[in-house]
């Protein structure tokens, strides 16, 4: 059973926006570094963005810089990924991941994260 739950995916036209949400079911997400990964059909899963728990530092992969924003709402214990100016190549299943010890400072690797969600589909299509 996944301990993270994603929501907010859907179908959007190129240039549109979506906001993904991630919540934890059995722990306080505020205390965990939280990341978004995505996996497009036929491709490996890649790290998209990460936010640290200690100081809120963030990391973005180059392909989403300036378009995506990761943020926490501590009161709601939720991490969001605001996705603007969506492109066809952003189509993928997006996964939320969390780790108690990680500091987000660069490339992300799946094995660094202990907790995962089941994913939410984002489809960008005209």
What count of helical segments does DSSP give? 0
What number is the mean pLDDT?
A: 95
Question: What is the gyration radius calculated from CA atoms?
Answer: 13 Å
The arrangement of helices and strands along the chain is EEEEEEEEEEE
Profile the largest sheet. 7 strands, mixed
Taken from the alpha-carbon principal axes, the silhouette is globular
Strand percentage: over 45%
The N- to C-terminal Cα distance equals 35 Å
Task: State the helical fraction.
Answer: under 10%
What does this entry show, briefly?
The protein has 126 residues and is mainly beta.
Essential attributes:
single chain, seven-stranded mixed sheet, 45% strand, mainly beta, 126 residues, four-stranded antiparallel sheet
Structural notes for this entry:
The chain is mainly β. Helix content is 0%, strand content 45%. The protein has no helices and 11 strands. The strands form 2 sheets. Strands 2, 4, 5, 6, 9, 10 and 11 form a 7-stranded mixed beta sheet that branches. Strands 1-3-8-7 form a 4-stranded antiparallel beta sheet, with no helix packed on it. A hairpin with a 4-residue loop joins strand 7 (68-73) and strand 8 (78-83). It is globular and about 40 Å long. The N and C termini lie far apart (35 Å). The mean pLDDT is 95.
Helix and strand topology:
Layout: E1 4-7, E2 10-12, E3 18-24, E4 33-39, E5 46-51, E6 58-60, E7 68-73, E8 78-83, E9 92-99, E10 115-116, E11 120-124
Parallel strand pairs: 2-11
Antiparallel strand pairs: 1-3, 3-8, 4-5, 4-9, 5-6, 7-8, 9-10, 9-11
């Amino acid at each position: 059973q996944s301990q993270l739950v994603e929501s907010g995916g859907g179908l959007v036209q190129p240039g549109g926006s979506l906001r993904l949400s991630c919540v934890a079911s059995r722990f306080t997400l505020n205390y965990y570094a939280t990341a978004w990964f995505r996996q497009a059909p036929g491709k490996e899963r890649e790290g998209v963005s990460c936010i640290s728990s200690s100081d809120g530092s963030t990391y973005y992969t180059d392909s989403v810089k300036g378009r995506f924003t990761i943020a926490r709402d501590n009161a709601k214990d939720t991490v969001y990924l605001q996705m603007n100016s969506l492109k066809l190549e952003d189509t993928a299943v997006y996964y939320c991941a969390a780790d108690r010890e990680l500091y987000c400072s660069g490339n992300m690797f799946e094995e660094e994260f202990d907790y995962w969600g089941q994913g939410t589909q984002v489809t960008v299509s005209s």
